[in-house]
Design goal:
Elements lengths: L2 E5 L4 H12 L3 E6 L2 H11 L2 E4 L7 H13 L4 E4 L14 H29 L3 E6 L12 H21 L4 E8 L13 H7 L10 H12 L10 E4 L24 E2 L11 E2 L34
Parallel strand pairs: 1-2, 1-4, 2-3, 4-5, 5-6, 6-7
Antiparallel strand pairs: 8-9
Nicotinamide-adenine-dinucleotide binds next to helix 1.
Length: 305
């Protein structure tokens, strides 16, 4: 039976991960600093738990080491504990920056290192999943330290995957888009939640959406996946959906060739079906496709992107 250690399991995404692993038949050791909430979740799931402050320098290794020695070899480690305070870059203090990095970046790295030492000594494979964030790719006001901590976590994930792959230990990350968790330690204003809730799939994400992805990438179905950052965000990171089109959809359509504005020289005319220029060779500057296949902006008015 799989033994999974889940940090940050007292709340939100970590709790959902713990629930999904339990439903999948795993033995759980849950870790968090919030003793009361952790005990309640552990009771509900019939899981063991360790109260650990993962910001302590020895906390992460102790969490994994104690779990291994007390409850048996650890197969899966999910590093979900995290904080995302609102902290403007001009207000950053050494202590504030260090705390964000201690929990969001250092703790997953140290916990993983301890698991790798124990697993390697025992000749066992293992799988680690770090919980990153869309913030790793995109800064926002007040989110600088958090975004930086998650960007660092993503690179640490890749570096660990490279080094530990030969030991049979996979290291991946799941990067959630915003999901409401009603957190005590990570409060989010309604205005922010509303502003970030849009995504191409058109519905809010849930902790369960994230947990299913963690369960998959941690498990045997993903046995040839390592160093991957799996974005689970309804498509939010796919692009800038809020931007207008380059050229209005209702602009008059030209013929089915894409002629760059101010181009009257037929040698620069591009066939949009083949990409070939009038001379028969591939165009150096392919014409931009209009959003409706086969239509292009009026070539005499269009921008010269
Ligand atoms: N909710 C989101 O929209 C979202 C989006 C992207 C990424 N994330 C990430 O998901 C993870 C879980 O966040 P969440 O949204 O479920 O928040 P949450 O506040 O519900 O859960 C965080 C957990 O971490 C625990 N924790 C805090 N400090 C700790 C410490 N020093 N030692 C041990 N445990 C500690 C808290 O007690 C809590 O149980 C975090 O890493 C977060 O960055 C969340």
């Amino acid at each position: 039976m799989t033994h999974a250690v889940v940090t940050g399991a007292a709340s939100g995404i970590g709790r959902a991960v713990a629930e999904h692993f339990t439903q999948a038949g795993a033995q759980l050791t849950l870790v968090d600093v919030d003793a009361d909430r952790l005990a309640a979740v552990a009771d509900a799931l019939g899981a063991r738990h360790h109260v650990v402050d993962l910001c302590d320098t020895d906390g992460p290794a102790a969490a994994v080491g104690d779990s291994w020695r007390t409850h048996g070899p650890v197969d899966v480690l999910v590093n979900a504990a995290g904080i995302y305070p609102s902290l403007d870059m001009i207000d950053v203090t050494a202590a504030g920056w260090d705390r964000v990095f201690a929990l969001n970046t250092r703790a997953p790295v140290l916990a993983t290192a301890e698991l790798v030492r124990l697993a390697a000594a025992a000749g066992r494979p293992a799988s680690v999943v770090n919980i990153s964030s869309g913030a790793a790719l995109r800064a926002r006001p007040g989110g600088g330290p958090y975004a930086a901590s998650k960007a660092a976590l993503e690179m640490a994930t890749r570096a660990a995957a490279l080094e530990f792959g030969p030991l049979g230990i996979r290291v991946n990350a799941v990067s959630p888009g915003f999901v409401a968790v009603d957190s005590v330690c990570n409060p989010v204003a309604d205005a922010y939640a509303t502003a970030v809730s849009g995504n191409p799939l058109g519905r809010p994400g849930t902790p369960a959406d994230i947990a299913r992805a963690v369960l998959w990438i941690a498990g045997p179905e993903a046995s040839w996946v390592t160093g991957e950052i799996l974005r689970v965000d309804g498509g939010s990171s796919a692009g800038a959906a809020h931007l207008p089109r380059l050229w209005p959809p209702d602009a008059p359509a030209a013929d089915r060739t894409g002629t760059r504005a101010a181009d009257t020289d037929t040698s620069t005319t591009t066939d949009i079906a083949t990409g070939a220029g009038a001379s028969g060779s591939a165009a150096a500057f392919p014409a931009p496709l209009h959003h409706t296949p086969g239509t292009l902006p009026n070539s005499t008015k269009g921008p010269t992107t």
